Amino acid sequence: MEESISLIEILKIIQKRLFLILSLVFVCSVISAIISYYVLPPIYEAETQILVNQKNSGQEYGWSQLETDLQLIDTYNVIIRSPVILTKVIEKLNLDTTPESLARQINVSNADNSKVVNIRVEDESPLKSVEIANTVAEVFKEEIPSLMNVDNISILSVAKLSENPSPVKPNKLINVAIAAIIGLMLGVGLAFLLAFLDTTIKTEQDIEEILALPIMGIVKSISEKDLEIPLPSRTGSVKTSMKN
């Protein structure tokens, strides 16, 4: 059998297995919706911003000093998520967690060429995410002077709890859409797999492709109606029949 397949054959395979494809799309979408809406807990995010400068030595603040501050931002980001800071955050808030687990909830970043550090905290509780974000900033402000030569730390914005907080995770609609696409891919792939594994001969074209021989004739299927034999009636006209 030839390896190539035409567009018409592709459409025929999809049309033949359309119910299977749609079923997989539906099943994957339903499973994703159940998991997203009823299994995965909602995750809320709070953010605070801090500005960190080095201690002024009395010299004029120039480009070299600015470049040094920017290079140290990565160091500050690591310190914020370190056990030195997070252990005291846990103690202050009396959290039932470890510094390692808490570090996975915290994302520290800054824009290019900016000394403003963004601290984002994710938690299942919107109130707790706000408290952790603000406490991390406060503890960092208290501890960084003793850790590095920094004495000018400003908290630009504190995290606040909104009246109607909305979770950032999971994105239910996107999850369902992704699951539907995965179901569609699985359905189409399974349809083609079944088509290629099916080696039965169904049409005259299959015989020509497999045996490479021309079709000389076709034997038509015989139904019971074709087996009816007309019999002459007493009046000479054909009325009754008999089956073989």
Tell me the layout of helices and strands.
Elements (H helix, E strand, L loop, with lengths): L6 H10 L1 H22 L4 E10 L9 H18 L2 H11 L5 H7 E4 L6 E8 L2 H22 L4 E6 L14 H26 L6 H8 L17 E4 L5 E5 L2
Antiparallel strand pairs: 1-3, 1-4, 2-3, 5-6
Helix pairs in contact: 1-7, 2-7, 4-5, 4-6
Main location: membrane
Protein name: Capsular biosynthesis protein
Subcellular location: Cell membrane
Features:
protein tyrosine kinase activity, transmembrane, GNVR, Alpha-Beta Plaits, Capsular biosynthesis protein, 244 residues, alpha+beta, 8 helices
Please give a structural write-up.
This protein has a four-stranded antiparallel sheet with strand order 2-3-1-4. Residues 238-244 have low confidence and may be disordered. The chain has eight helices and six strands. The protein folds into two domains: 8-40 and 177-223, no CATH class; 44-157, Alpha-Beta Plaits (2-Layer Sandwich), CATH 3.30.70. The protein starts with 6 loop residues before the first helix and ends with a strand. 51% of the residues lie in helices and 15% in strands. The chain has helices at 7-16, 18-39, 63-80, 83-93, 99-105, 126-147, 172-197, 204-211, and strands at residues 44-53, 106-109, 116-123, 152-157, 229-232, 238-242. With 244 residues, the chain is α+β, with helices and mostly antiparallel strands. A hairpin with a 5-residue loop joins strand 5 (229-232) and strand 6 (238-242). The chain is elongated, with a radius of gyration of 37 Å.
